[in-house]
Structures are given as C-alpha cells and as structure tokens.
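Hi everyone,

Forwarding the result from last night's run.
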Amino acid sequence: MNAKIFTELLIKGDFKAVHSILDVMNVVDIALLLEELNEKELAIAFRLIPKDKAADVFSNMSNTMQTNLVEMFTEKELKEILDDLYMDDTVDLLEELPANLVTRILNAVDSSKRNSINLLLNYPEDSAGSIMTTEYVSLHQSMTVKEAMTHIKQVGIHKETIYTCYVLERRKLIGIVSAKDLMTMNDDTVISEIMETEIISATTHTDQEEVAQLFSKYGLLAIPILDTGGLMVGIVTVDDAMDVMVEEATEDITIMAAMNPSEKSYFETSVFSHAKNRIVWLLVLMLSASITGAIITRYEDAFSAIPLLVSFIPMLMDTGGNCGSQSSTLIIRGLALNEIRFRDIFKVIFKEFRIALIVSVVLAFANGLRIFLVYHDMKLAVVIGLSLIATVILSKLIGCVLPLAAKKVHLDPAIMAAPLITTLVDTCSIIIYFSIATQVFHLN
C-alpha cells in the first residue's frame, strides 16, 4: 500500500476506505505503513485497525511508536490492547517505556497477569527467562486425544502457540505432543501413548543466544523453559529466537566496527548518542596508534639513510591489517555458530599458519618482483619480501588467537575485530619491517 495514498484517505476522512485497506493487509505491513504517519495520523489510523489485528500490529511496531500510542490511549483502549497482547510482548514493551507509562500499564492489567509480568521482569537481562512467555498449552498424560483437542479449543485462543503442547505432571515436564499428532490420531488414543519424552529444553538463566542456537540446531518451533527446580515456567517461540539472532548479530556488527551497541534503530538514535557510542573506541584506537608513531620515530636514522623505506610503510600496515581482519572475522563467525571452540585453538593456529605461509609467499614474490623491476634493488626487494612474510604470518595468528582468548575469558569475541586487530598489527609490522631493514642494510 502506498503511504501517500493512505495518508490522503486519512486527511479526507474516508475512514471506511482506510478500514477496508487495513482489514486485508498483513499485520507486519500495517506496522510498517503506520511508521510513515505523524502522531495525529497514527492515532486515527490505529483506531481503525480491526480489533482482532490491533494487538498483533502493536507488537510489530517500533518502541517509539508504541510509546506514542500508549501515551495517546484511553484507559479502555490500553486495557483492550494489553488483554490481547502476549506476555513476552508486554514485557518487551515495559522494558522500553518510561517509568510513568510502566505504572499506567501495570495498573491496567489484572492481578494474575501483573504477577506474571513482574516475574518475567525479574529475570536477568539476555536470559531465556526474560524473553519467554508463560502462555502455552499444557495437557495431562491421562487425557485422550479428543479431550486434548477440546481443551485446546477452549484455551488456545489465549496462548502464543498451539503447534506444540506440553504434558505436565505437577508442573514437571514429562513429554511434548505436536498438533499434527493430535489431529492424525484416533480420538480415544491416550496422550501418554503418543507423547515424546526426549525433550530439548533450557533453563530460565540460560543465555538467550544459546537458546536461539538450539532453534537453529534442532529446527524447533518452541522450546520449554524450566526453573532451577526443573519445573516448567514458560516457552520461547521461534519468532522470539529470530529477534534474538537479529539483536545479537547487530551487536556483533557494531562492536566489530568499534562502536558501542545501541538497541534503537539508526534514525531513532540521536546524533549525540551516535557520537557517544563511537567516540570511546575511537579514542582508545587513536591513542593506541600513537605507539606506532613512537616506533617510527625511533628509526629516524634508517629513514635518513634510505628515504625510500618510508614509502612501503602504508602497504605493509594495510596488508597486515587486512590479513588479521580476515582471520578474526572467520574465527568470530565460527565461535558464534559453535563451529569453533577454545579447545580447538592449536588446530586453528596450525591451519592459519599454513594459510598465512601460502598467502605471504605469493604476496612477497609479487611485491619483491615489482620492487626489483622498478627500483633495481635486490636488497630492498628482499627486505619487503621478508617483512611481508613475517607480517602476514603474525597478523593471521593474532587474528585467530585474540577472539578465542576473548571467548575464554567470557568477553565478546567481536571486540577482537578489524579496528583492534589492525592497530595491533600496525605496531608489530613496523617493528618487523625496520628490524629486517636494519639487519639487511646494516643500519645499526
């Protein structure tokens, strides 16, 4: 739907046409369309959304839009939305709202839902408990398929998913049954006969990224979440896992680019916040680079004797930084996907060493040949060639070891990405270069 045409209909007051458009649109597309409206238009358009879609549209909106709507809602409208909103979406909303709006929402929900919300809000940030929902379908093992289907019809409308049902015995999870099993079995079949007892689960304190990896590994639609006593308290659904994956990927990308991560989108983040997120790392890297300058100053005599040496510094530093970044990027990806673990460090080092040897010899030969043909100086060609070999090998080893070391000490491996690797390799490459040059040209 074209946002301009939609806005024109709102301005004209053709609310019947607007309602008809919203009635046939997907909830995600509606949320995207409403982002193009100003606050006044948003308030009118949202009230024209069919009531059975309103909560789903609201849950797909940005935090800024949700906050604006909550401020504009009457108490009745707010209660209607919250009654239809799933528990995990309500908790996500509360985590982003200012304190006065949080209080207003908690006052609008009934006591049982308020207790569930408070329970979820108390779980550690980025844990499975903080993203789970308590709205799932539970069954008894003594039920027949017919009784189970009747139960699902009664309660399913209020649950986040009915594709997987959980068989509980005094709140202890003893099995799972899929909707497919229930729909294809005879009515008199007992649940205990068809339930699966090999269950993939997580605890409330399991890291949310680990939970997301379970979805990827086992191809699940939902994962049951157990408390420390082994009792079932909720589920994490695949849509929540996808949100976690996007969030973690965004965080890794920003850290790899030497920025502090932000949960807000690019345009929602203020200029000052953008600057604040970037300046700290830039200051650290700038001050670290000053070490390279100090090392170059130490070899002023070598510059004076052979001024041509200076012209090859950028090439060596860039090549070393690029090689280190290649290795660190692949290792960080491997760690994120659990393809590589810290115990593999020596296998990784040996593999990267062999790769570096091949790459460095090719680069050294190409550069050495170019320098000899251009400058007719075999010694200079040897210096550059040897410096390239040593720099590439060292940079690739640094690039693979640092992310593994960060993971071992429980830091985000993404910290050890291109900017930091490049700064470290720059310093090392300069030391290597001038050490070899002073020996070959006898500049001591």
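The beta strands are 138-139, 164-169, 172-178, 202-203, 222-226, 232-237.

Cheers,
N.
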